[in-house]
Write a structure and sequence with these properties.
Largest sheet: 5 strands, parallel
Helix content: 40-55%
Strand content: 15-25%
Distance between the termini: 9 Å
């Protein structure tokens, strides 16, 4: 196979990264992971303490994508998850229309393009599960009727560290719907100083972000990501890695087949972000942990830091010996 550079796609992706970086400073790696999930057609979970810029990231992403010919950005909705939140607060509800003497459906915030589910683990499991069908099938069902969501529907969910008071751990079925789980973290010292010195201008940047991508171009990028080549030996390694998680002595619940598919999709999207139309083993090294770790249930905390990394290093070593061209 002839490997070629994909410069035109790279320019669009790098422009998107640049616009978001004008607001979110010192977080290029995290921004790339978010865009990777967008191009792979998945959703992302971000765990971290409040005040690290997660909400600004979601807003910036929405502002940078044009939703229609009138130049409006795609629809962005933020839902603050709280213990008293109800499923209908997300999905919508039927209200009585006195003029027509009938009940009509009033859409909830899920009917958008970019949804920020803020502090998702503060809401009850019943509310958390209301997101499940939307994330998995791009639709919601109310009564006997099904409503289709926007073609581009992307969820950025945030959660506080699980040991914080008043949190409800997400169930495995819900976690499995997130293609990645990343940690935002604090910025480095130089970036934090720059934020303090220029916080007024950085805030203004959010309102002046250029729309560098249309929905049509976004769909083309997603198609380009799907077309990225992945070597059969890499697929074999992914298969071995996934299956090995089910028999590791430190892992109680291993990864599902869905996990492997999500990993392949994210690898392809990540390769496109790096301006390649083929996946390399270094992509697997950078992506596997954030795609698989949150889907596994470990027997103890000690195993949590080692088990997946051990399995991953074994496959990376095998691949390096093969010297895939």
């Amino acid at each position: 196979m002839d490997y070629i550079e994909v410069t035109s796609n790279e320019n669009k992706i790098q422009n998107l990264i640049h616009e978001i970086s004008s607001v979110i400073r010192g977080k290029k790696d995290q921004i790339e992971k978010v865009i990777c999930c967008v191009l792979a057609g998945g959703h992302i979970l971000i765990e971290d303490n409040p005040g690290t810029g997660k909400t600004l990231l979601a807003r910036s992403l929405a502002h940078a994508i044009s939703g229609n010919k009138d130049g409006q950005s795609v629809q962005f909705k933020r839902v603050q998850f709280t213990p008293d939140l109800l499923p209908m607060d997300l999905l919508g509800t039927h209200i009585y229309d006195e003029a027509h003497h009938e009940f009509i459906f009033k859409k909830g915030p899920l009917f958008c393009n970019v949804l920020l589910a803020d502090e998702i683990n503060r809401a009850s499991p019943k509310v958390q599960s209301a997101l499940l069908e939307a994330m998995a099938e791009n639709q919601i069902s109310i009564g006997d009727k099904t409503y289709i969501l926007e073609h581009f529907f992307f969820t950025i969910a945030t959660q506080n560290p699980i040991d914080m008071e008043g949190t409800y751990p997400l169930p495995s079925a819900q976690l499995d719907r997130f293609y990645m789980k990343i940690y935002f973290g604090y910025v480095d010292e130089a970036s934090e100083l720059e934020i303090y010195e220029n916080y007024t201008q950085i805030h203004k940047n959010l309102n002046t972000i250029n729309q560098v991508l249309s929905l049509e171009e976004l769909n083309n990028l997603k198609a380009a990501a799907e077309a990225v080549y992945i070597h059969p030996e890499l697929i074999k390694s992914i298969n071995t890695l996934i299956r090995s998680t089910r028999s590791h002595p430190d892992i109680r619940l291993g990864a599902s087949t869905r996990s492997g598919i999500a990993l392949i999709k994210c690898l392809k999207a990540f390769a496109l972000i790096k301006n390649r139309n083929y996946v390399i083993e270094d992509d697997l090294a950078q992506i596997a942990q954030v795609v698989l770790d949150h889907r596994l249930i470990y027997k103890n905390k000690e195993g949590q830091t080692k088990a997946l990394n051990q399995l991953l290093q074994t496959e990376l070593k095998r691949l390096s010996q093969l010297k895939i061209q």
